[in-house]
Amino acid sequence: MSGGRRTVVMSPQTRLARSRPAAGRRWRKPPLEVHESERAGRLYRAQRRHAVGTVGLLVVLVFGLPPLLGLFAAAGQLRLFGVPLSWAALVLVPFPSMVLLAWRQSRRAESLERRR
Amino acid sequence: MTALLAVSPVVLLTLFVGLRGISATRTTSEFLVASRGITPLVNAAAVSGEYLSAASFLGVAGMMVRDGVGALWYPVGFTAGYVAMLSLVAAPMRRSGALTVPDFAETRLGSPALRRLSAMVVLVIAVLYLVPQFRTAGLVLSVVGDVSYWVGVVIAGGVISTTLALGGMRAATYVQAFQFCLKLVLFAVPAVWLVVTVGAQTRQEAVDPVEFTRFEERTRVEFRVGATLRVRRPTEVRSPDGSARVLRTGEHHVEAGQVLVFPEGAEVPTVPGTAPPGGEHWGRPLLNVADAGHPLFGTWAVLVATVCGTMGLPHVLVRFHTSPDGRAARRTAALTVVLLSLFYLFPGVYGALGRVLLPELYLSGGTDTVVVALPTQVDTGWSATLFTVLVTGGAFAAFLATSLGLLLVVSGALSHDLLPGGVTRLRGTAPLAAAVVVLLALPAVFLDTNILVTWAFTIAAATFCPLLVLGIWWSELTVAGAVSGMSVGLFGSSAGMAVTLFGPPLDGWKAVLTAQPAPWVVPLSFVTMLLVSVRTRAPGWARTEMLRLHLDEPAAPAR
């Protein structure tokens, strides 16, 4: 054992979390560096564009389908394997579309972040 | 006996999986967010396991029997909420580094007052959501086995608080992920068995609805909750002990706990304010909220509440904090959409068959029990018992998982946000909170729980949804704006619900807009936040704080 000072070793996130005082007191994280702030601004604008696109499609799908199916049900007895088409469509249209929409949004958001 | 068989394996497995998490839980971060080490697939299973509550496992099928095919819009809204969350909230929320939703509010806007308001809203939402879970636990156990309502409620409370107090978030995560798989199997397998076993004629009747006007056989209706029936023609009914009496034309109030046996061929009484299942309206794929005669608007109203509400449910949001980084949080949301879509293929099966085999449940207001009551309707003997055990076990897993998550955010809100303390206090809060909810759930047996769940969703949609969306995407949001918008949302939705529960009966537009206030209260809350924020000035650091949420983590070093 030499007489050197002992230092605590911890990850940067832990240091940030530990440096935070008890809740209730004002505390701000250190400001962003210039290159970080530029990158954050770029990502913010690009992600906003994609998010608006996805949410727009979602709104069209989820809110457009009820009037469409309402018309279908009124129009007559179309059947899919014996099940009324408007019932089957209520399950078979929205869920696969939402899975696709979620997959596409997640992929596009990640590809934006891969660009350095 | 059946109840014991159904519940004890689920309870034992839950405790076993939960107890494995004990030794690891030493810090607040570990207790609340499992030290952020959960992979997307496990986390997505946990999110789905937590989200598929009694409302999904039993409620959707029950609502379909009562209200018609349009009830299937609820699952669509529940799932669509995750697509919106994936696009708008998941990654930035995780990158804020907060442990709870109130934490996020304080980090982004720097106001301890806002943190306390958010914690209060978390408590309101969680209690409104927990009481129906506990109530359904009690009801289902009393249907399946001959135990009293309160026994089921107390069992649920005991198991949940023990798991949580010992294991915290890591235990909750594994329990919930495990329970998703359990629920999916216990929901899907009996559904397939039912479709195969019922026979061609019932399958045909299931897709050709006819109005429920006449009892096709001697039918026993058990009223667990009091109900009012309107009789159009004198009907002779018997009690189980054989004594007969005649219900004269007019309205009759049936006391809770009574059993009436209707003879074959008798005309079915109606329930004032609702239409009997199977009529023309029943097959229309729209939701006639409050029977107000505006089905398209009613459907849209439910969709607004469920989509925006899902984005603001605190117990779901806190799950995203357990992801290691923003990208994993996003993947979690995307996988959740897939898992929920799988599960939601099946409620329609139970609903359609329940309408054919158990339409009388609508008379006693007991449609919520249709899923557990179906197996004994299609078969007798050991296979029916087996499948009753399976669905009951699944339903019990559903309350356990959801209540676990809700109780965790209650503990977090009380002893992390309102009265900060260490992990010891967090552990101690869980059983206390559970005891309070058990006490609240005991008298709640008389309430229509759908109203409570709708209320919770609407409050979430009108408070946290605008707070998160504007907080993440708009740097000019101010504390004053957030506080006034959230207050407007909280009071607006509560006013609508209070009128529905205690006010005079309404009809037409007024009925839809009070029973389902989301279409006006959510926009109102957004507009209030926008207008008040424009009139006040955001501090200089606000833009940096917002941009920080969108900055991705540095790429992990190659391994």
Automatic annotation (TrEMBL), chain A:
Keyword field: Membrane, Transmembrane, Transmembrane helix
Transmembrane segments: 51-75, 81-103
Superkingdom, natural source: Bacteria
Region (Disordered): 1-28
Name of protein: DUF485 domain-containing protein
Organism this protein belongs to: Actinopolyspora mortivallis
Automatic annotation (TrEMBL), chain B:
Protein family per UniProt: Belongs to the sodium:solute symporter (SSF) (TC 2.A.21) family.
TM annotation in the entry: 72-92, 113-132, 147-168, 180-200, 297-320, 332-353, 384-414, 426-446, 452-474, 486-506, 518-538
GO CC field: plasma membrane
GO molecular function annotation: acetate transmembrane transporter activity; symporter activity
This protein's UniProt keywords: Cell membrane, Membrane, Symport, Transmembrane, Transmembrane helix, Transport
PANTHER family: CATION_ACETATE SYMPORTER ACTP, SODIUM/PROLINE SYMPORTER-RELATED
Major localization class: membrane
Organism, scientific name: Actinopolyspora mortivallis
InterPro entries assigned: Na/Glc_symporter_sf, Na/solute_symporter, Sodium:Solute_Symporter
Biological process (GO), any one: plasma membrane acetate transport
Localization annotation: Cell membrane
UniProt entry tagged with the keyword Mitochondrion: no
Protein name stated in the entry: Cation acetate symporter
Gene3D superfamilies, sorted: Sodium/glucose cotransporter (1.20.1730.10)
Membrane topology: Multi-pass membrane protein
